[in-house]
Amino acid sequence: MKKMYIICFLSVLMLAYGAYKITYLVSVNKYKNDAVKYQTNEFKTVAVDVGNTNKISTVTKFVYETYNVNTGEITSKTYEAPVKYLGFTKEMLAHDLKEKDMGDNVLKLEILSFSKDEVVMRETIAYEITADYFIKMVNETLVIYLNDRETVYDYADINKASVPEIILNKLNTGMYIESDRELYEFLQNYSS
CB 3.0–4.6 Å: which of 5, 25, 44, 112 could bond 120 by disulfide? Predict the structure, then answer.
């Protein structure tokens, strides 16, 4: 009886393998016939990117400059291209920037240069000046202006050795002082 079960089991196994092999060969044959049929160029292809137009891609670097009208300072930061701008041309980017909601201090936002490798945009800002004084190093002397940056209020000598480098850099481009008290404290700390 055991032999009969083994023979039946092997027969069913061989029958299943034979069915699998036959369906496999039929499928492969059908696929080859269909492949030949579709190689006859029934479908026309159209190139998606024709010409030499510059478009923003994943390798495009965004240089974002901020120009402060009050101080004349330009700061610059480099970013990877934002995902929302991938595939944009210069015209598409300009249109999107026109519709962007700019803050109260932003005078304009413009594209300075545009290529597939780098996009340079500049935001021009101006802040309402609430400071009383503007100080700047001129020929090794600290010049104290009124907040209009033209009317000279006073001159002062400062000890450059006691001034931190970051403040010296600000003094070379100029910086605003908010009040008489802040000016007095600054001069007390750094006067020679």
Answer: 112
Contacts of 190 (CB under 8 A, 6+ apart): 158, 159, 162, 163, 167
At position 55, the amino acid (one-letter code) is K
Q: What single-letter amino acid sits at 124?
A: T
Per residue in 85-116, pLDDT (tens digit) is 888 999 988 888 887 777 777 778 888 899 98
Provide the residue type at 68 as one letter: N
Summarised one tens digit per residue, pLDDT across range 3-41 is: 888 888 888 888 888 888 888 888 877 777 665 555 555
Task: Give the position of tokens 């003094």.
Answer: 171
Alpha-carbon Rg for the chain in angstroms: 37
Q: Residues 49-56: contacts with CB within 8 Å, 24+ apart? A: 53/89, 54/89, 54/90, 54/114, 54/115, 54/116, 55/87, 55/88, 55/89, 55/116, 56/81, 56/85, 56/86, 56/87, 56/88, 56/93, 56/116, 56/119
